[in-house]
Write a structure and sequence with these properties.
This protein folds into three domains: 14-208 and 372-433, 4-Layer Sandwich (Metallo-beta-lactamase, Chain A); 213-361, Rossmann fold; 459-562, Roll (Ubiquitin-like (UB roll)). The protein is 31% helix and 23% strand. It contains 16 helices and 28 strands. The strands form five sheets. Strands 7-6-5-3-2-1-21-22 form an eight-stranded mixed beta sheet. Strands 8-9-10-11-12-19-20 form a seven-stranded mixed beta sheet.
Length: 563
């Protein structure tokens, strides 16, 4: 199946360690090491799940990188959050270049500015077809098609052989930017001999091919032709191709386009500056001009396709946006897939839009979205072209990884020497050396929970406290002690939030106050005089009492005052 490839005895081993992105969507980050050289492919984040209250972003833990010492280069395949979102938290460990295409690095610049960082001399801008040498590696960029411009796969030329990492890709024969996936280069690498292929597994369970970005043109054409009022299109702010398609159709229907929402405005400006988005003169208007235009003369490209509470579409849906509103003659198009876990939030926004009388269009009712990830037949084609000695499925939940593994076995099973599949998980150290390729051990991996825009990591104890507050509420016992006598002054007072319904709160808290008074009176003089010991006694006794009385265990925060 694959071209012969061998290395002289004693050639240094190459270790590949996925630090995120296997068994999950997001957190894509992979370390490749040989001797003292370590490079990273991507550094992505993910949005928190519902059981992480107060967490704004999740990034991969960097324990392994700290053990390695420093990172000699960070190589970025493209500019989506799940591939660059963790760069601000990884960047202090990178001593060498940060390598990416122009659009990827432009998006990254905006992100780093929010964290008061910049790449400085580490910035290394490359085009597809370029390569860079870092220590023992030569990294080559290969053009691939995805849902945004300037996406690449990387071929890492190592002492053990070539490792191909596809990044996110699909095979679009008619891309809007006329830059198709470079199948010729992938085939040439395969003919010369590829040690290992790490390939995107996102859409492996979808049969056939994904389809071209241009396939959604007819769906949008129908929406614009049949809508008398405003057309509001919600998509990912990074979907520049979708922006271009909507801009072109708006111009054809004599409508003007407003970019609404911070991400949409910033990314459209970057794309126009770099030449990836072309907006005809007179077509673009500011969001503040929308209200003054006839509804039938405008299209709004907005953020909020995932139901994010502070995004433009969510505010429009509750009629709380400063400049844009929708009504009975308007159409709102959700031109994005629902990320798993966001269904309820999206449904809430759709219901609010329905109350405003707007017509809502989704990919279930019209062809207004196409994925940026290759489906099963495209993944098979890449496997057949690259012909790797070893195959490692990445980027997907475990069910996608196992399905991709079975696809690889089916594609290569009839060959004289079939590809060996390595089904790995985050933290597995995959070693390529004289003995071949295999998982040799595991390293420490995990997630770091970020509260606010880089304000700090949230530890497990804080998350447990927030979950407890959300589930059982808060009770604050206020106890007044006489400093001289050490005796209790009056009956303790209890303040509760989110604990029990108001109709029964008085009875429960009154009983608790009497019980707590008895507890304090029974304490020894030494315990009453030690504020720390007294607080712990109050906390434990009140929690146990309320558990018996109500079946709930609220967070108890004692306040001891001395007079």
């Amino acid at each position: 199946m694959f071209a012969s490839s061998s290395t002289p005895p004693g050639t240094p081993a190459v270790d590949v360690v996925p630090l995120g992105g296997l068994g999950e969507f997001g957190l894509n980050m992979m370390a490749v090491s040989c001797g003292e050289t370590t490079i990273l492919v991507d550094a992505g984040s993910m949005f928190p799940e519902a059981d992480l209250p107060g967490v704004d972003r999740v990034v991969p833990a960097c324990d392994y990188l700290d053990e390695r010492g420093t990172v000699d280069a960070l190589v970025l395949t493209h500019g989506h959050e799940d591939h660059i979102g963790a760069v601000p938290f990884v960047l202090p460990r990178v001593v060498g270049p940060v390598v990416g295409t122009p659009f990827t690095l432009a998006l990254l610049d905006n992100k780093l500015e929010e964290h008061d960082q910049d790449l400085g001399e580490r910035r290394r801008e490359m085009q597809a077809g370029d390569s860079i040498t870092v220590g023992r590696f030569r990294v080559e960029f290969i053009r691939v098609t995805h849902s945004m411009p300037d996406c690449v796969a990387v071929a890492i030329h190592t002492p053990q052989g070539v490792i191909v990492h596809t990044g996110d890709f699909k095979i679009d024969p008619t891309p809007l930017d006329r830059q198709p996936t470079d199948l010729g280069r992938l085939a040439a690498l395969g003919a010369a001999g590829v040690l290992a292929l790490f390939a995107d597994s996102t859409n492996v369970d979808r049969p056939g091919v994904t389809g071209s970005e241009s396939d959604v043109k007819d769906g949008f054409d129908e929406v614009l032709a049949t809508t008398r009022g405003r057309v509001v299109v919600a998509s990912f702010a990074s979907s520049i191709y979708r922006m271009q398609l909507v801009v072109d159709l708006a111009a054809r229907f004599d409508r003007q386009v407003a970019f609404v929402g911070r991400g949409m405005v910033e990314n459209s400006e970057i794309a126009q500056r770099l030449g990836y988005l072309r907006v005809p003169t007179g077509v673009a208007v500011k969001d503040s001009d929308v209200a003054s235009l006839p509804p039938g003369d405008v299209v709004c490209l907005v953020t909020g396709s995932q139901g994010e509470p502070q995004a433009a579409l969510s505010r429009i849906a509750i009629d709380d946006h400063r400049f844009v509103s929708v009504g009975h003659d308007d159409t709102v198009v959700f031109s994005a897939r629902a990320i798993p876990g966001n269904e309820k939030a999206i449904g809430r926004v759709v219901n609010h839009l329905a109350r405003r009388g707007a017509n809502v269009v989704t990919a279930d009712t019209r062809h207004v979205h196409v994925s940026g990830h290759g489906s099963a037949e495209e993944l098979k084609l890449v496997l057949a072209l690259v012909r790797p000695r070893y195959f490692v499925p990445v980027h997907g939940e475990y069910r996608q990884l196992t399905k991709h593994a079975r696809v690889a076995q089916a594609v290569t099973g009839g060959a004289p020497t079939p590809t060996t599949v390595i089904l790995a998980e985050n933290g597995h150290r995959i070693r390529f050396d004289d003995e071949g390729g295999r998982v040799v051990d595991s390293v420490t991996t995990g997630r770091v929970l970020i509260d606010g825009a880089g304000s700090g990591a949230v530890d497990g104890e804080m998350i447990r406290d927030r979950r407890q507050l959300a589930a059982d509420g808060l009770v604050v016992p206020v106890v007044v002690m006489n400093r001289q006598s050490g005796a209790r002054e009056g009956l303790p007072e209890l303040v509760a939030r989110g604990f029990v319904p108001g109709t029964t709160a008085g009875d429960v808290l009154g009983e608790t106050a009497k019980f707590l008074a008895e507890v304090i009176d029974a304490c020894s003089p030494g315990e009453r005089s030690d504020e720390g010991l007294l607080k712990e006694r109050i906390r434990g006794e009140v929690r146990r009492f309320l558990k018996r009385r109500t079946g709930r265990r609220p967070m108890v925060l004692p306040v001891v005052m001395e007079i």
